[in-house]
Specification:
The complex is a heterodimer. Chain A is mainly alpha-helical. Helix content of chain A is about 95%, strand content about 0%. Chain A is built from 1 helix and no strands. Chain A has one helix at about 1-30. Chain A is rod-shaped. Chain A starts with a helix and ends with a helix. The longest helix of chain B is centred in the first third of the chain and has 32 residues, at about 10-45. Classes of the chains: A mainly alpha, B mainly alpha.
Amino acid sequence: MIIRRWMFTLYLGLTVCVLVGFIVLGVMHR
Amino acid sequence: MTPLRRGLRDNGLGLVFGGLFLLVLAGQAIAGHADLNNRQLTDGGAELSFGSYLLSSDFAVDVAENWQSEYLQFFLFIMATVYLMQRGSPESKPADRIGRETDEQQQLGHYTTDRSPHWARTGGWRTAVFSRSLGLTMLGLFVLSWVAQAVAGHTAHNTDRLTDLQDPQSLLSYVTGADFWNRSLQNWQSELLAVGSMAVLSVYLRERGSPESKPVGAPHASTDESG
């Protein structure tokens, strides 16, 4: 139960954070 | 079985794929860094440190263009399987369940139980959103990845153009141009072929024990079975 919740948060949270990071970096490097 | 072992067994798919993902992403970063530096040497440019490569648009666009196509694939597959069927495929539902299905089939309204998720029991907008949350999340991640591909690809493409002493392109002209669409379409075609192959090949082929396959002895024409 605890692993399941953690994995859900990690999969969704890390993916969104990485993508937002890419966008922010891309905009900053322009 | 100890609680830890049971926890690992119960979450094998998520843990193994998540772990392999991190390993392979690290491999991609190492190979991508080496490849970029090889090209820098040929072009007479300065070498990039590994840390700078991880924060570069070149790495971001390579990662994002693959992610967007995967999320698009899952979004399309989730939505298409609501309304379309493939007779004989374990990925398809039978003809009489095409569409959003009844509250009874979906365990909604009067058919919820004490163990149903909270947002499935409340009704109203919460249940409406929860009923579409998997597709919406895949769509959202696709859009976010595609925007990341556009922004990072634009920056990386302009860096290449500056090296070649060409004028930088605007974001609009980049997202309507060849580099962006070549990257997008070459990923989409492979995902569509893979999804189509899975739907069609699983009609006549079997993998004993896999829930992605029908039971080995199931007839070719039977739909909505897994084994």
